[in-house]
Amino acid sequence: MLKRQFIEAMVAEDVGRGDLFTRISESKAIRAYILAKSDGVFGGREYLEAFEKMYNLHIEWAIEDGEAFSKGDRLMDIYGPSKIILSLERSLLDVALHASSIATLTNKYVKAIEGTGVKLLDTRKTRPLLREFEKYAVRCGGGLNHRMGLDDCLMLKDTHLKTIDDLDSFMVEVRQKIPFTSKVEIECETFEMVQRAMKAGADIVMCDNMSLDETRKVVAFRNENYPHILLEASGNVTLETILEIAETGVDAISSGSIIHQANWIDLSMKVE
């Protein structure tokens, strides 16, 4: 969804048929600001700048996407008519809160594997109609996006594989029908499935819910026989386990929890 459409829908949801406060108040030029009431990593600036243009506001920034902030920091000053700023207050805060909360948790995972060379990826476990926004928030936290949808990478999961009788012949047909630049990833739960997937010509192999020992075995097999194939680990990834997984030698680790387990931080708007 385009930023403008996303923002218009968000504001329409909150304002409804009209902010009742605007009926009884006179509009005046004010300065508001967003205050951090907890520590975090910021996300949401791209969207807040879109608000700024759409509603003729002026924002003076004290922070960039991806920068850390501390409790008590003043993140931005917002100038404009009081009726507009007050009507947009919740929408502005929700954008900053939602994006910054995901960015904050993502950054913890990124720091946990710092120095390993392993990339942290998100998944398609996003809230309906919020995928573009939530994956943007992951990037703010230092993570990388996995595929945005079914159209930019062919991923054969266990459910797909149940419908394929001959993986080798299927992959020949795949290469004739999908775009030349599209990659094929195959989800594997066992070492035997990894061998089949690599032989069939996968570009990426996912080690799904494998033990650390089995993942190391896959890495060694890849390195010896198919060094061009990328390895992704997924399943039961937590802040406590992610470093051990990274040290197996995979190229990337994917986790849906960096989005769906992100707890909201605390930001507040004040008016001077």
UniProtKB/TrEMBL annotation:
<dbReference type="GO" id="GO:0004514">
    <property type="term" value="F:nicotinate-nucleotide diphosphorylase (carboxylating) activity"/>
</dbReference>
<dbReference type="InterPro" id="IPR022412">
    <property type="entry name" value="Quinolinate_PRibosylTrfase_N"/>
</dbReference>
<dbReference type="InterPro" id="IPR002638">
    <property type="entry name" value="Quinolinate_PRibosylTrfase_C"/>
</dbReference>
<dbReference type="InterPro" id="IPR027277">
    <property type="entry name" value="NadC/ModD"/>
</dbReference>
<dbReference type="InterPro" id="IPR036068">
    <property type="entry name" value="Nicotinate_pribotase-like_C"/>
</dbReference>
<dbReference type="InterPro" id="IPR004393">
    <property type="entry name" value="NadC"/>
</dbReference>
<feature type="domain" description="Quinolinate phosphoribosyl transferase N-terminal">
    <location>
        <begin position="23"/>
        <end position="100"/>
    </location>
</feature>
<dbReference type="InterPro" id="IPR013785">
    <property type="entry name" value="Aldolase_TIM"/>
</dbReference>
<keyword id="KW-0808">Transferase</keyword>
<feature type="domain" description="Quinolinate phosphoribosyl transferase C-terminal">
    <location>
        <begin position="102"/>
        <end position="270"/>
    </location>
</feature>
<protein>
    <recommendedName>
        <fullName>nicotinate-nucleotide diphosphorylase (carboxylating)</fullName>
        <ecNumber>2.4.2.19</ecNumber>
    </recommendedName>
</protein>
<comment type="pathway">
    <text>Cofactor biosynthesis; NAD(+) biosynthesis; nicotinate D-ribonucleotide from quinolinate: step 1/1.</text>
</comment>
<dbReference type="InterPro" id="IPR037128">
    <property type="entry name" value="Quinolinate_PRibosylTase_N_sf"/>
</dbReference>
<keyword id="KW-0662">Pyridine nucleotide biosynthesis</keyword>
<comment type="function">
    <text>Involved in the catabolism of quinolinic acid (QA).</text>
</comment>
<comment type="similarity">
    <text>Belongs to the NadC/ModD family.</text>
</comment>
<dbReference type="Pfam" id="PF02749">
    <property type="entry name" value="QRPTase_N"/>
</dbReference>
<keyword id="KW-0328">Glycosyltransferase</keyword>
<dbReference type="Pfam" id="PF01729">
    <property type="entry name" value="QRPTase_C"/>
</dbReference>
